[in-house]
Amino acid sequence: MKKETVVIQKELFAENKSSLAKYQDLVIGQRGWWALIRYELIVTFCSWVPGALGLVLRKFLYPKLFKKVGRNVNFGSNIVIRHPNKIEIGDNVVIDDNCVLDAKGSDNDGIRVGSGVFLGRNSILSCKNGDIILGDHVNIGFHSEIFSASKVQLGKHVLIAAYCYLIGGDHDYDAVDKAVLEQTRSSRGITLEDDVWLGAGVKIMDGVTVGKHTIIGTSAVVNKDLPEYVIAVGIPAKVVKQRKVEGENGQAAKESTARS
Asked: Any idea where the domains of the chain sit in the sequence?
């Protein structure tokens, strides 16, 4: 389990740093004039540009910001980028309009996006000194958020519907004489194995592992590990069906499930 006490507000108003230093540490992730000028020019002149011209400009210029960008990556307009030097993106990726890619942290690895990934409009990948790893062919619906204060990892072919929230961190609250915000923050991380499907509005709590090929129904809250090949629903989520049963001949036969 990872524990930290960093509070962003304290960093923003620290008196021992200049405004420029705070901006570089919290937004750009690097010191130095060249990193600052490059970030400001690219974001200012192409982040907001609509239509085909904007897509072309970002496709050409944004790779100069990130640690690594593969082939055929399309960036929508008004994407918020924090600590791009700690963000890696694979091939054939779509990042839709108004998404947030925030790899912020002092000693984390940041965000790694596999190939064939789709990140829906207004979705957020947010690190607070943690890491987010998306496997190949992950599909994230609009208005979803993945938060990591340690490590959140999604396997291949994970499907996340709209308005889902993966909460990879927590607050300690044992000290009643101190505000929760000022107490230690803890994080055990989250793991979704291959081919997990989250219905709309699902919440995955810190410390949870979901086994491969598992489906979680709409609006469920998952606060405990789930095994592979099951369907779970409810608050808190409970297993209601097995997706894989043993046939009479001893070979596994998957039950059909409609993804609608």
From this structure: 2-204
Q: What is the pLDDT along the chain (260 residues), one digit of tens a residue?
A: 777 665 565 666 677 789 898 899 899 999 999 999 999 999 999 999 999 999 999 999 999 999 999 999 999 999 999 999 999 999 999 999 999 999 999 889 999 999 999 999 999 999 999 999 999 999 999 999 999 999 999 999 999 999 999 999 988 888 888 888 778 888 999 999 999 999 999 999 999 999 999 999 999 999 999 999 999 999 999 999 999 876 544 444 444 443 43
Beta bridge partners of 129: none
Residue 36: left if φ>0, alpha if ψ -120 to 50, beta else—which one? alpha
What is the spatial distance between Cα 136 and Cα 132, in angstroms, rounded to a whole number? Answer: 13
Could you tell me the fold of the domain covering 2-204? UDP N-Acetylglucosamine Acyltransferase; domain 1 (2.160.10)
